[in-house]
Structure prediction request, 275 residues.
Amino acid sequence: MTFGVPEGVVGLAGPPGAGKSTLLATFATLRRPNAGVLHILGHDVAHAAGVRAARAAIGYLPARFSRAEHMTAGEFVEYAAYYKRTSASAARSMVRRLDLGEAAGTELALLPPDVRLRAGLAAACVHEPEVVLLDDPFGELCAAAEPWPTGAGGPGRHALTAAMAELVPVLRTLAPTVLVTADAAETLTGWCDRLLTLARGRLTEHATGSAGARRGRSAADRRAADPAGPPPPPVPVRHRPARLAPPQMTLPGVPLPQLTRLRVRRPPAGSATGV
Prediction:
């Protein structure tokens, strides 16, 4: 099969153990594919030069990202900026962008889960990546909001809803392409441009419930639209002027009975975004 991630926010849901973290770690070049070809932003990661070039444009946040509990949020972002070979001023700018000004001097262990997540996002995106990979970023919030998502209401669920209402717009502005995973598809429904589920080796696309996705428009198109005017007719997805070839991951033509054949529409030739 051929699997591509174009511009916009792409959600990937599936039960624990389905392979979501492994897939994102592969896209982040931390794992090598056992077969097939993986291109990130036009770079073939089978070669060391391609890996270095791809990593420079990737922002990756694992599900349980390591953090020094006694490090402040500001120090944590500055530390990430050092390893991403960017300036301290870029770190301070990202702290302001993620609304961490008041929390910058507070230790990470003392911050609520949603603010810690903002610090993780700032650290992952301090170098202004083209692709952002977020492995279950809402997992800690969902755990703190139990008994949700079992269906029962409570103050934890209301806190989760309020936190996500603030965080979702932030996720949409991190990069041209954002790939985010979650255990429950309901967490991603309604705001992702595309929604895929991965279970028992089967990859399936579902309706997202997103108005922008129904109109077939990208996140950039929706930001440019006038909210006061009438909804425009469907238009083709527009992409940035490209610097690199369109990326994709292709597996060899071997029998894969456990996989559902899925051919994701790839961006037109010349797009620099996506995986």
